Amino acid sequence: MVQTNSRSVEFGAGRRCAMMRADEHTNEPKYYLVKRHLLGLLAEFEPGAPLPAERELAKLLETSRSTVRQALSELVAEGRLERRHGSGTYVAEPKLAWPLEMASFTDQAAASGLELQTSLIAAERVWATPEISELLHIKVNAAVHRIERLRRVNGAPMALEQSHLSAARFPGLARLLRRSGSLYQVLSEQWGVAIVEAVETIETAPASPRESELLGTDTGAPMLVLTRHSFDESGAPVEWVRSWYRGDRYTFVARMSSRR
């Protein structure tokens, strides 16, 4: 057992090893058996509780360190555990559920009772690629605002956003955004533009070195990548944005109903 200020994860060696031996007759890989047993234990402990070292776990569960390491790695990737460099492995905080709604990031955070901080990383003019020109209904090589922001929720990095908007339609947008953290608020107050419809996709990708640095995770860690193509009341495209979220810390919730 490892002692800290948080209650530590305890293992009854005899009981756990008996359970492992009982499951050895299944067709499941050995690391998955270890993972399943660890997962059953974690529900009993508070976030922040430390796990024993790999060597100790391997001895308690009568298996190899490589098997234990593989089980722990999957639990870390799933957000059940977190590794702290130079310290060890701990029970992770529960994932934050984030609703998929037609609302600004600022409004969603406020509605969920969360404290939001936004850092403007970049606000620059770039030239529209063929993909961006098609999405925004502008000419190839037309001027485009590229806005990159880091979102923090309750002090922890949550998302890295990169938005593209037509520079001709929204002149001076970068300057205005430096005064206000809400893009949708600026669009509404300055140009009378409201986002009423969007197409959103979700996929997974490994974190690049830059994304991992900004979001406080490891290079190659699983990311949830959202793209949103937003439209105004007339059906004209307003924004195309790609956002990177830590896959181990967040889960997305969409409410659906049947058409009447």
Strand order of the largest sheet: 4-5-6-9-8-7
Helix content, binned percent: 25-40%
Inertia-based shape:
elongated
- Chain-averaged pLDDT: 83
Strand content: 25-35%
Structural class: alpha+beta
Order of helices and strands: HHHHEEEHEHEEHHEHEEE
Number of strands: 10
Rg over C-alpha atoms, rounded to the nearest angstrom: 23 Å
Number of helices: 9
Low-confidence region ranges: 1-6
Largest sheet: 6 strands, antiparallel
| Ends distance | 57 Å
Structure notes:
The protein is an alpha+beta fold. It has helices at 13-23, 30-42, 54-60, 65-77, 105-111, 130-136, 173-177, 183-191, 209-215, and strands at 81-84, 88-91, 96-99, 116-127, 143-153, 156-166, 197-206, 222-231, 237-246, 250-253. The strands form three sheets. Strands 4-5-6-9-8-7 form a six-stranded antiparallel sheet. Strands 1-2 form a two-stranded antiparallel sheet. The longest helix has 13 residues, at 30-42. The radius of gyration is 23 Å and the shape is elongated. Mean pLDDT is 83; it is low at 1-6. This is GntR family transcriptional regulator. Residues 28-94 form the HTH gntR-type domain. Keywords: DNA-binding, Transcription, Transcription regulation.
